[in-house]
């Protein structure tokens, strides 16, 4: 006797569809993981480049003589560019460098008791590197302190104590202070700390220091010169050697309300005597007779033309249109 053949078992359409769906989900997941991995590698590459550029600038500043550490048109002044664009590994970076004098509280300060007669103790260098990333801009910053090789040496110059507060007298942090002097070629921007007070040390003794205080969402405040106002208040500041010049600037949040102002209704007359066509915008088959002033249909061969019209010009004031 021969054994009966068993029927072959195949895949149904439902099995095939489920298999395709499972493979699709797996490939989409793998593709997403690959994209995330590539993005992470790209971000790490960009961040590594920013760290390298910031470290390079800090090392350059450390290698300079102490009295030459500073930025162009800065305070202290030097040969380091305040901002520069650098392309590294196909990525475009913006490198910003800020150098400021530091009056260390450990040996007293120029504004406290006991009085520190040498407030320019050392210099602080901050390097910030920015680059564009998908969706936003990223940055990396590094800071270092640079001290003189020997004892601190007095750097001649004046001191500005700039306080930024709101209308209630509360300190404002994060406000931008621009200090500019066209004679000494100074042009720097500083940011107020949580106290709202910024000390600028080592300023070249001179007059005409322009101060502008701004912050996003706030009104601004600044000093004025005699070329703008006869008796400016506040006027541009003066830096005097070894003296503190204090000034407070008040700024506050700007309202976003909109006000509409309307005139009350009133009576007014408008007339046209029709002695000329100066008050008519358009005419068709009509004519003006100056004496007496009339507007009438044109008359031709014993008949008046029909139709005809005349349109007045725009009437002032507008609500009489």
Structural class: alpha+beta
The total count of strands amounts to 18
Please indicate the count of domains: 2
The total of helices stands at: 1
Q: How is the main sheet built?
A: 5 strands, antiparallel
Mean pLDDT: 87
- Please identify the top-level CATH class of the largest domain: Mainly Beta
Alpha carbon gap, first and last residue: 111 Å
The run of helices and strands is: HEEEEEEEEEEEEEEEEEE
Regions with pLDDT < 50 over 5+ consecutive residues? none
What is the CATH third-level topology name of the largest domain? Immunoglobulin-like
**What would you give as the CATH superfamily of the largest domain?**
Carboxypeptidase-like, regulatory domain
Bin the helical content: 10-25%
Strand content: 25-35%
CATH architecture of the largest domain: Sandwich
């Amino acid at each position: 006797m021969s054994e009966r053949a068993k029927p072959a078992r195949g895949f149904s359409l439902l099995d095939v569809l489920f298999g395709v769906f499972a493979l699709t989900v797996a490939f989409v997941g793998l593709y997403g993981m690959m994209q995330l991995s590539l993005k992470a590698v790209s971000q790490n590459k960009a961040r590594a480049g920013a760290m390298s550029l910031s470290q390079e600038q800090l090392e350059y500043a450390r290698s300079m003589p102490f009295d030459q550490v500073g930025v162009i048109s800065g305070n202290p002044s030097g040969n380091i560019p305040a901002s520069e664009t650098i392309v590294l590994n196909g990525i475009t970076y913006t490198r910003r460098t800020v150098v400021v004098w530091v009056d260390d509280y450990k040996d007293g300060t120029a504004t406290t008791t006991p009085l520190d007669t040498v407030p320019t103790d050392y210099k602080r260098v901050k390097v910030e590197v920015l680059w564009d990333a998908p969706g936003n801009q990223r940055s990396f910053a590094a800071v270092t302190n640079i001290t003189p090789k020997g004892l601190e040496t007095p750097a001649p110059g004046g001191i500005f104590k700039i306080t930024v507060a709101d209308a209630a007298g509360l300190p404002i942090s994060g406000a931008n202070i621009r200090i500019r002097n066209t004679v000494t070629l100074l042009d720097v921007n500083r940011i107020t700390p949580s106290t709202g007070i910024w000390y600028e040390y080592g300023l070249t003794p001179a007059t005409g220091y322009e101060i502008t205080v701004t912050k996003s969402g706030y009104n601004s405040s600044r000093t004025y010169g005699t070329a703008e106002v006869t008796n400016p208040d506040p006027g541009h500041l003066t830096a005097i050697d070894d003296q503190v010049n204090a000034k407070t600037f008040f700024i506050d949040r700007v309202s976003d309300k909109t006000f509409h102002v309307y005139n009350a209704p009133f009576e007014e007359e408008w007339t046209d005597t029709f002695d000329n066509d100066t008050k008519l915008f358009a005419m068709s088959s009509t004519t003006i007779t100056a004496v007496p002033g009339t507007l009438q249909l044109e008359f031709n061969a014993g008949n008046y033309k029909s139709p005809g019209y005349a349109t007045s010009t725009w009437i002032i004031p507008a609500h009489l249109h």
